[in-house]
Specification:
Elements: H1 8-19, H2 24-39, E1 53-57, H3 62-71, E2 80-82, E3 89-94, E4 100-105, H4 116-121, H5 125-130, H6 133-136, E5 137-142, E6 158-160, E7 167-169, E8 174-176, E9 179-181, H7 183-187, H8 201-204, H9 206-218
Parallel strand pairs: 1-2
Antiparallel strand pairs: 1-3, 3-4, 4-5, 6-7, 8-9
Length: 219
Amino acid sequence: MERENLDLVTCLENAKTFHGELCAGITLGTRMSILGLKAIGIDDPKGKDRKNIIVFTETDRCVTDAVLATTGCHPGKRTMKIHDYGKMAATFVNLRTGKAVRVVLKNKDGDRKTTREEIEQNPHTGEYAMMPAEDLFEIMEVWVDLKPEDMPGKPLHIVTCSSCGERIMDVREVHRDGMILCKPCASGSNYYTPLNGKAGENTKNSAKEAEELETTARA
């Protein structure tokens, strides 16, 4: 007899293979995915339902690998969106029906701070695999406003930043006083700092340059 597509044992094995080990995050992420998919009416995420799902995860840790392995959703396919809030949570959206649910790990520790040492000493991997889902997770129906530029498929358009000259896809540009700016140039900050004065050189002083461009445009 064949196992169902969302069989826990099979899904855990797939997630373990993808991630490289079976840990608490993989166990939780796998169970979270199965619960979320079933709640939105998806039973074959890698087969007939593969074009009907978008998933939002709220951490960049093991849980997200488990969600990817179980749902078949990928950032590169634009079917997985990662919002790193540092939370053990994910939202599953059925694109065909619009139904969406958010699944989050229940807080059983209150306001207590948990240290790395405590986490390493008490991995809970086996325990999380056996506990009833209702004891582990909270699940709520939600609405997700999916915009055309966030959907899978080719970019709606590609434009050029007026400040750094780099190309911007998927309507991620900022329009300001008649100029088109990428988000780093618009905000004047970035996640990296150029060291050689070449790559991204314009972005380093983007706030000043954007102001100069604005002055020129008004002249």
